[in-house]
Fold this protein.
Amino acid sequence: MDTNTTSRQRALVVGLGISGTASALRLHRAGWDVVVLEKAPERRRGGYFIALFGTGIAAAERLGIAGAVPDRADPSGASYDIDRTGRRRRGLGYANLPGKNRLVVRGDIEDAAFSALPDEAEIRYATVPTALAQDFDGVDVEIRDLNTETTTIERFDLVVGADGLRSTVRRLAFEPEQNRTHRLGYMIAAFSLPEPVPGYRKQDGLILAEPGRSVWVFSFSDRPPTVLFSYRTDDVDAEFTRPAIDSLRAAYGPEPTGSTLGWLLDQFEKAPDHLFDSAEQVHLEHWHRGRVVLVGDAAWCLTLYSGMGASTGLAGADLLGTMLERHPDDVPAALRDWEEHLRPFIDYHLRSGVSMRSFFTPANQKELLLRSVVNHLSRLPIAQKLLAKTKTDSADARMKSLDIAAAAA
Ligand SMILES: Cc1cc2nc3c(=O)[nH]c(=O)nc-3n(C[C@H](O)[C@H](O)[C@H](O)COP(=O)(O)OP(=O)(O)OC[C@H]3O[C@@H](n4cnc5c(N)ncnc54)[C@H](O)[C@@H]3O)c2cc1C
């Protein structure tokens, strides 16, 4: 077993997504030696559309990476509500959501944080934790190298589980009943288009919303759009029993697709990679146990419907560093303080992840009708003023802009 021979404390970060990379960066800045394990054989690139709100931007600024996170929004873009027959109307899009934001793809934030990592941060790809045993002073972690198929045990002062919705660290360190995720009864599929949607400008966004299913095309100023399919299901497991494209074609059938939806489904089938998953939240009584802490989707997966997963991943990592600096010799106290400051904010966004489902995908005919009434009203000049005010002054806008580490200070 390796022993810790330096006086610097040693942290293991599991996962090289937004939350893990930001945690590694912030912990290093707080004076920790950092080792990162990533299951994948190499870094992933690109990814789907993400709106980074004020909370995430403030954290990115403190992490020193905000300048490297672009804003790919195109102010000349329009958002259209479309239907299968090809009818289009101007409607409310992502840009109308409360809170100012930067539009990026997930890889933009990961790249910005990764580029800022110091050389001393040791990154091990194709490597996973397989067991954790902690005592008062530290955590012994059994680590498996998937390439060489060898296992070693190393000791750390802190383990950060930033390994996403289906976190291994959560499974290894928390009781089995804490490991149940909460399915929202919706499936999501996301991928990148190679080119703009035929018949639309590259900067235009599209939404096709029907009871229980929707498709969104998110556009950018300087790269092809990304697409999100989101649909309701009563049987999540059944959706995984066949290729993703078959589940999508079944969910968006049996009616004729029309040209745009048909083209989007064909593009999904041809895409070199895609995400296909069920929308699930993580609800934990605590996000830490002793010297093990979960950050980001591993701890509180809000789902894409909240629009705050990336922002809270960055903010959670940033605040973790602040609290470890505040309690330099007492990791459990730092983790308690961290959770206490973060909890009310995350609970708010967990609730909004549930309520905002209907903004993305109306559950039924009634919600669809409501959506078209709101869309219709939004074209009135008075509503435009109200929308502009909501964007900056509403409670939701404030919760999306809260600078968590500054508030904790
Ligand atoms: C379609 C879609 C749209 C979204 N839109 C938005 C948005 O507009 N705004 C927003 O803020 N958020 C959005 N989100 C949510 C946001 O993308 C996530 O909350 C965020 O990326 C989570 O980052 P993470 O680092 O916590 O987890 P992940 O991105 O899941 O990263 C986990 C990492 O851990 C690695 N890993 C997993 N298991 C292991 C293991 N056993 N050992 C080692 N490594 C492991 C994985 O390979 C991965 O690299 C969206 C999500 C989706 C799916």
User: Anything to note?
Assistant: Residues 14-20, 37-40, 48, 50-51, 106, 128, 162-164, 168, 188, 190, 228, 275, 296-297, 304, 307-311, 313 surround flavin-adenine dinucleotide (CB under 6 Å).
